[in-house]
Amino acid sequence: MHYKQVMLFITGKAVKLATLLIAVSILSFFLISYSPIDPVQLYIGADMTRVSPEQRENIAEYWGLHESKPQQFINWGKAVLHGDFGTSLLYRSPVADVIAERFLASLALMVVAWLLSGVVGFLLGIIAGMRQGTWADHVIKGFCFTLASTPAFWLALLFLMTFSVWLGWFPVGLGTPAGVLAEDVTWVERLRHLVLPALTLSIAGVANVALHTREKLIEVLASEYIRFAKAKGEHGFVLVWRHGLRNISIPAVSLHFASFGELFGGAVLAEQVFSYPGLGQAIVQAGLGGDVPLLLGIVLFSAVFVFVGNVMADLLYQLIDPRMRRSGVQ
Amino acid sequence: MSMQRIDAYATPTKSNRSERQRAWTRIILALLLLAGIVVWALLINADNLKVNLEGRNTAPSLAHLFGTDWLGRDMFARTLKGLTLSLAVGMLAALSSTGIALFFSLLSSWNKWLDDMVTWVTDLFLSIPHIVTLILLSVAVGGGFKGVVVGLALTHWPRFTRLLRAEVLQVKEAEYVGVSRQLGRSRLWIARHHFLPHLFPHLLVGFLLLLPHAILHEAAITFLGFGFSTDTPAIGVILSESMSYLSTGLWWLAFFPGLALVIMVSIFELLGRSIRRLAETSSG
Fold this sequence. Notes:
The complex is a heterodimer.
Chain A: H1 3-33, H2 39-44, H3 53-63, H4 69-81, H5 95-130, H6 135-148, H7 152-166, H8 187-221, H9 224-231, H10 236-257, H11 260-273, H12 279-289, H13 292-320, H14 322-326
Chain B: H1 17-43, H2 75-108, H3 112-126, H4 130-141, H5 144-153, H6 158-172, H7 175-182, H8 187-223, H9 235-242, H10 252-283
Helix pairs in contact in B: 1-2, 1-10, 2-3, 2-5, 2-6, 2-8, 2-10, 3-6, 4-5, 5-8, 6-8, 8-9, 8-10, 9-10
């Protein structure tokens, strides 16, 4: 790709991300600021009886709660621009730190699940597409449609019942064993706690990729050049390997990148079932506990996460498809 | 490769009679099953939902098909009630999202600026994971039943809007619309007489395909603890409560309600796909 085009692409995406984040923060800030949650009440929590009305007033004053909503937003926005997302009420530590720590745990989960569901989904799609109309195709298609109707958290509950409670192969919950210091946790333990949530999340993501790949492969197999290759005597996997794979793999990988939003949503549910200490569990706690700074922080973070996935999807098309390259950067 | 390349995705070029007949059979079957669920749930006697401490924690049997919970409540009755609740909330959500999508798509046919605005808002909503938007809206409204319904109703339109917008923009270029415009018809007249009849099948199919999504999201958000109080027999609440009893071996508390939800959602999925196929074959 041309140097100038690369620069254009990067600046274009950066501008887009900036406007997106501004819009998301305005929208979410005003949604939350009109909610009936009383931040002072939440902050005081159990000490309610020991705090006098004057002290409450002081806290409200200190936080600038008496200022107008737009002024409050500007104050908050200024702080965010300086990297200060405020202090989480639930964890009593800076929101940025909580997000960083939680995201690392979620990332491990999501990376494993993303890769696994991509590979398995792609293979299933190829098998179904090659054997279109046969029992293998029907089984795979039926499996995918059923998966699409299955709530991921119910699947997680089934795994928990079967593998943890009944067979006892895996721990029932928590990212690390209870009563052990974080530094002392071995890698094996961490992995054991990762298996079931990752498995749930990857199975939930298979259907999309598989159905898409199947459809594309069927389309490709009906094309002129495949007919020509067949006339030359090529068939089976060799035929797909030589002529089909390149055409179907890029859209599939692209689609998979564009599904970061669903991946994040699935992680929220899977983490809840297995009480895995990731970002998804944090946003649920923040939402239920009225931890507004943390909630806003994670909303912004999730928007960046989805955006990165979409940029990767775009980039793949730009890099691989020569037609897109010639027509210039969008 | 034979000519049998017709599947759920490819639009058949010729209207295929047996294909249509099969679609009709599926639609009727699906409607009957759904009607069965609703009628059965309405006939349920309120006694079954009551606490009955003598018969608690019993495994599935003929008297209690899905077993009973730690308060002796019949899980079959609770599941059926939960399904109808999910159905009602899902219907409301899908209906209002269809309305929003229709409004936005007509709005984008007005002029370039409004079209850009609609596209921008659609992209904005798609830029945050759906679950996160639901949590945000639920918190903003103050949680509870209202939070769930508002959240579900306001978040299912973006993809559908994209689809409808493309349809409207396509019809807008049609010759008969141009003729109407030259005859001095107002925009509202054109919207009512040209756009709406064209959009109607899309609205129906889109609504039906939104339903399973809305129902699954309702279950997910209530499972996370937003929304319904714990004594409401919603599937999400039932499943989230069952988590405390899994380690003691009460597997039926989670297994059957979830399975029932999967079956109901699958029926809707089937209904939506069959009607879409019917709409495609009739216009081809």
